[in-house]
Q: What sequence folds into this?
């Protein structure tokens, strides 16, 4: 007898109830209609097509652009007892033929296929002979030519609709913006689809952005040691060189860190990625080349040692933390040099003026997010067109509201100093002039004779640098095109320079103990948890994962292990009640974990 969706959720996946809007999406497909699902990372998109694929007669075909992701999902489904397989370039000819045979004889519930394979005529002909439950198009934003993940093969997916008009389709993505959504609908012929848009909030992620002149390496190390020792995380850097330096440096400090960037040999990249997925507590130091298609659920932090180019990029990258819904940190350190570098890159880019304007606007939004003094989550969600009524209580500005100060007078001095020195010097020089240093260069230029020489005693050098950073971030100063870091005035600075506008700025925090005050909050385990039992459960999981050749989280998620710690089940019956324990996993692993708990 065919199972109902709710039974499948409980018996196969071990979850008690659907999250909204999973049930409605599933009902839409069960009724034979199309759906477009926009949900943030970790929202639970997979079940939206996996469950109806199991419940409906025939096999669900899943189009997925990333081989690693496919293999992961298939491994996880098989662990849950679902008849799943994939067809991609990693299979031998004979293996692929065997799976095609299973497709024809109805032995599969789910078949994952790479898009280029799907579009080949032989494959389409096979589908016509088989019974198809639905088509799921994962990462549907890959159809967007303007997006950063564009896949030409995705454009052709509209054929599915023409060849199989009666098979329901579901397209899914975590890319939220309106133009992408319109493009998906138009290109995939989804005009009749029901559209489901979830909130894009990730309440379990704590956003923190700190000022760190000088790279923030030390602060990163303290952050990892204090809050995420032994846990997995990703550290993003702008350049390949910095990736390697930081990975080496962290390793030397005892943090197991590996580098990842497009310049490493493919073998090294694969090896490092496999270790990140299969081991616990690896920190991946990477350029943005890393991350797409990584669905490791227990990444406990994403750190940025450089400023991302846009809020979109920031949100996508930080979104890789805490897919399992447990507390996670998005941590960033940025400084004056970041602001200068990015402004510089933008100004000197080859792009046409329209394009530049868009990029400038995006960078302004990112810098605005960094310098703001109110709730960061409200700003983030607002940027994506979603309102949040109250401050979130789970970002740094909510937890430790920053003080602001009236910076009008010092700002006028700083701007005036740029003006008096001829709008061509960098911050270090300007600060020296303000502080009245008499070095050879300043004397040679006669800048010890100008009115702004030595008028800056009220702030120290690092405070002046912070002030310059904020002036650049707010576009009151522009960076030169030649890349020497020279600053010039912009139109926007006039009112401040003339004293007509008050400038309120974020007060820079001195490096104090306050950093440790909010610490340990991002950790998976509550402070009173039984560390010994946790380690024993994780060791058991690792052992089983190695036996099966799958990543540990495919056996059980951290959330399930934590539920075991809390509930301490004393029978298989009690174990079955825990989230993430379906019938197949209970039978396969229940006793192993029960023994660990009973021995503890
Ligand atoms: P996405 O593809 O949207 O990033 P996933 O499908 O990987 O998200 O799901 C994220 C996590 O949420 C997974 O660990 C999944 O098992 C869990 N999950 C999904 N739906 C439910 C549910 N109804 N109840 C409990 N956990 C769920
Ligand atoms: Zn907040």
A:
């Amino acid at each position: 007898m065919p199972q109902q969706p709710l039974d499948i959720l409980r018996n196969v996946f071990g979850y008690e109830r659907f999250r909204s809007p999973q049930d409605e999406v599933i009902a839409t497909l069960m009724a034979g209609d199309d759906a477009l699902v926009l949900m943030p990372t970790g929202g639970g998109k997979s079940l939206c097509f996996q469950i109806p694929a199991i419940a409906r007669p025939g096999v669900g075909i899943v189009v997925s652009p990333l081989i690693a992701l496919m293999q992961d999902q298939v491994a996880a489904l098989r662990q849950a007892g679902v008849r799943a397989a994939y067809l991609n370039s990693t299979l031998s000819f004979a293996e692929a033929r065997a799976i095609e045979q299973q497709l024809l004889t109805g032995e599969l519930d789910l078949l994952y296929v790479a898009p280029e394979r799907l579009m080949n005529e032989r494959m389409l002909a096979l589908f016509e002979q088989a019974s198809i439950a639905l088509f799921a198009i994962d990462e549907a934003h890959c159809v967007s030519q303007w997006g950063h993940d564009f896949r030409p093969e995705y454009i052709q997916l509209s054929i599915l609709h023409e060849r199989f008009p009666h098979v329901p389709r579901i397209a899914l993505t975590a890319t939220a913006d309106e133009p992408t959504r319109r493009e998906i609908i138009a290109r995939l012929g989804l005009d009749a689809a029901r559209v489901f848009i979830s909130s894009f909030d990730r309440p379990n992620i704590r956003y923190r952005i700190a000022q760190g002149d000088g790279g923030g390496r030390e602060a990163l190390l303290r952050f990892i040691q204090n809050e995420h020792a032994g846990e997995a995380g990703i550290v993003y850097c702008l350049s390949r060189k910095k990736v390697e330096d930081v990975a080496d440096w962290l390793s030397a400090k005892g943090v197991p860190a590996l580098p990842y960037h497009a310049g490493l040999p493919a073998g090294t990249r694969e090896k490092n990625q496999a270790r990140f997925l299969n081991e616990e507590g690896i920190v991946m130091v990477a350029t943005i080349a890393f991350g797409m298609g990584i669905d490791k659920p227990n990444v406990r932090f994403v750190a940025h040692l450089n400023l991302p180019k846009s809020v979109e990029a920031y949100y996508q990258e930080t979104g890789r933390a805490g897919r399992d819904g447990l507390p996670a940190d998005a941590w960033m350190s940025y400084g004056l040099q970041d602001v200068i570098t990015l402004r510089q890159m933008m100004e000197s880019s080859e792009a046409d003026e329209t394009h530049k304007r868009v990029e400038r606007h995006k960078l302004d939004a990112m810098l605005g997010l960094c310098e703001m003094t109110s709730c960061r989550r409200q700003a983030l969600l607002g940027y994506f067109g979603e309102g949040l009524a109250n401050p979130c209580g789970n970002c740094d500005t909510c937890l430790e509201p920053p003080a602001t100060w009236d910076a009008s007078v010092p700002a006028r001095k700083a701007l005036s100093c740029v003006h008096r020195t001829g709008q061509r010097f960098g911050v270090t020089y300007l600060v020296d002039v303000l502080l009245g240093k008499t070095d050879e260069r300043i004397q040679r230029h006669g800048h010890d004779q100008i009115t702004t020489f030595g008028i800056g005693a009220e702030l120290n050098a690092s405070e002046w640098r912070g002030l310059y950073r904020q002036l650049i971030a707010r576009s009151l100063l522009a960076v030169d095109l030649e890349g020497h870091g020279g600053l010039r005035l912009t139109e926007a600075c006039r009112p401040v320079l003339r004293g007509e506008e008050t400038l309120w700025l974020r007060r820079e925090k001195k490096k104090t103990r306050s950093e440790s005050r909010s610490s340990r909050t991002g950790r998976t385990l509550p402070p009173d948890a039984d560390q010994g039992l946790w380690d024993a459960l994780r060791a058991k999981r690792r052992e089983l994962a190695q036996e099966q050749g799958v990543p540990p989280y495919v056996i059980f998620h951290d959330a399930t292990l934590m539920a075991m710690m809390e509930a301490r089940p004393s029978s298989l019956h009690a174990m079955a009640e825990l989230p993430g324990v379906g019938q197949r996993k209970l039978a396969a692993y229940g006793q192993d974990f029960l023994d660990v708990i009973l021995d503890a």
Notes: The longest strand covers residues 205-211. Confidence is low (pLDDT under 50) at residues 512-522. The chain is about 45% helix and 15% strand.
